[in-house]
Amino acid sequence: MSEKINLCIVGLGRAGRFHLQAIKKLDSCSLKYVVDPGIAENDELVSSNNFTLLSEITPALSDTQLNGVIVSAPTQFHYEIICRALQAGKHVFTEKPLGKTATEIKTCFDLAKEKGLSLYLGFQRRYDTNFIALKKSLETIGQVRTIKMSSRDNPKPSLDYLKISGNIFHDMLIHDFDMLQFLLGDKVPVAVSAFGHAYDPEIKKIPDFDTVLVTLKFDDGLICAIDTSRIAEYGYDQRIELFAEKGMAIAENQKNNTVEVHTKKGSFLTPINYSFPTRYKDAYSAEIADFVAAIPKENSVNVSKRQCLIGHLIAQAAYNSAITNSVIDFKKEYAGIIDD
Ligand SMILES: NC(=O)c1ccc[n+]([C@@H]2O[C@H](COP(=O)([O-])OP(=O)(O)OC[C@H]3O[C@@H](n4cnc5c(N)ncnc54)[C@H](O)[C@@H]3O)[C@@H](O)[C@H]2O)c1
To answer: What pTM was computed for the model?
Structure first.
């Protein structure tokens, strides 16, 4: 291993750009390559940074000095890029979702293990200080009885992005299903149900939903409700409430500042953060720092294979429920795939 940890970003769009900023903050590593067929040599990002721009990943993978690959290309390419990078002996950090099927997820984790390489997932909410504190509250509030999550995006992603995102369950709610795993451990629901609607005619045409409510029931009695929307006009809305045996814990939205103005006309608060790059700025940096720190240790994960699979299968069950208007018996349909 050379003195610095050398990294390659594959896909320099919205996600790739915040990974680039995260790498620049770390003295221990250097961004050696960016692979992106859609970026031109004269792009300002290329001239203002010291990396080699490639339109295809092969030259980067054959560089023995390259240690890790960060996959932030569109979702449909994740699996192939992850497999190629692991086969070439590179540690991998990938944006969500890792794969399109349970088999793809299992193959990636098994390959990383076989090669002794790290496989990290871009579930940045696990690195958010609010949600870390929320998890800590579980030591005080006792057994959780209901969970309410709101997870509403802003602004609406581009139609081009939405068309290739998979669907709202695998692209967006996957973060919330992962948050359940983060908070509660490898918790497998007994039943999953979901309703969805598309208010936006362009999203309806894809076809996908832009507004969804998912409920999950667990065998210890826990009931969880997650509402999500592709558009929340008032800002990026991410809240969680845990109602438990001995108390309640709430993670609220972050505001741009804490000033409140009170006049005869009423009380005014500053808006909540506009979008995810602001809300999770520090978390995006923390997840890349965690990945880089794990590289010398080899075969590390930040999300276990089992938790990744459970999250994926809940997304699948919720999708099936919403399109069939039925409650999914999760254990009957999916437990075998997790334990296989
Ligand atoms: N964790 C998060 O909060 C978060 C936020 C946004 C996006 N994402 C994930 O990041 C991924 C990318 O989303 P985005 O919003 O950045 O998309 P984007 O459209 O903004 O960027 C994708 C980039 O990848 C490039 N690209 C296309 N095909 C490629 C290929 N074969 N190899 C390399 N690069 C290629 C495009 O030219 C573009 O620059 C998605 O999988 C998405 O789920 C995660």
So the answer is: 0.96
